[in-house]
Design a protein that fits this description.
The chain is mainly alpha-helical. 61% of the residues lie in helices and 3% in strands. Helix 2 packs antiparallel against helix 3, helix 4 runs antiparallel to helix 5 and helix 7 packs antiparallel against helix 8.
Length: 374
Amino acid sequence: MNPFPKTLLLIALLGLAPFAQAEYLYTEGHWQIKPGTTSDIKLENRTAVLLTLMDQASRLAENGELKAAINAWENLGDNEKGTQVEAVALLERARLYVKRAQFDNAVELLDELYNRHSNFPGFNQVVELQFVIANRFANGDRRMLGGWLPWFKDEAHAIGLWDKAVRYAPNSEIAEECLIRKARLATELDRLGEANDALERIVSDYTKSKYLPEALERLADLRSKESMGPDWDQTSTLESADHWRTLAAQFPKDPRAQAAAQKIAELRDRAARGKLNLAQFYWYKRNNPEAAKLMANACRSISPESTSAKEAEALLDEMQKNPDPPKSFADKLLGVYPRPKLVGDNKPVPINDDLDSLGFKKEPVKPATDADRR
């Protein structure tokens, strides 16, 4: 027999395979196959039986017989492994477990659905249900062990579930809402690292998100709190001011932007005060006028109109009038702190003809004769 027709038939069947995946819809109390999602190559009797069994499972759930409905969907899924019917059964069981507040069971089913049916047409419903479960935890809903025994509240568990929903659908609107909800809850629970990660992702990956102004404001507040005052590192303070500036520039009509100018002034004044404190330390405590001038000028550059800048100018005037800082009681008693040498103070040392002192022995030049080369 000529194998060529068999090859053509195989290619045709492979070409039809993507269209043979049925998509099931539940409308007006009945399950049906969405038109155009399945090929004509199917067993009509088997399809009718499956739809009837699916209708029966849904009817049990509508009548409040949730446990019986879960069992019915489980039997359907077990008998239809690897098909879209199994995927629908997993999703419907997860929904019923959520109604019974058996959230962990529902999450396990959604994970199985995600791992085994990544091409499931109703995948958005999976993400939405994951989002609902996370919100139930965040709102303080308790797990019901076995569907009847209330367990402890676990609001923090919502953070991991929101993360999972973002992984499922990173380009959806739900992903943005998951991140902002994670940031809010993590801030309330004092898990600032996780809040910071969520806010940073909104700012970097979702530049058109409706939550961007809130994310910038929250990120600015987090950054400002990382520094404990002018005596500490001010990098986070300046980053906070930059976030406020971005908020004011990109969203001038947002109510949060109204406080931006004052916040920026306060933050830059704090950063400038940090440089002024360093300038005063080098001048009064370390006898180092050069470092003091450098810090004082940095203070003026950070916030020229601030009170700190005016104090820095007064300090620069003092240093200009007298290059030596005033002596404290300790200086008078123990002597002033040694002033560091400038780089220009290191003058080159001349070397005389006696190189032997440096490890080089000066020897007379030998003639390059044949006898010497042997």
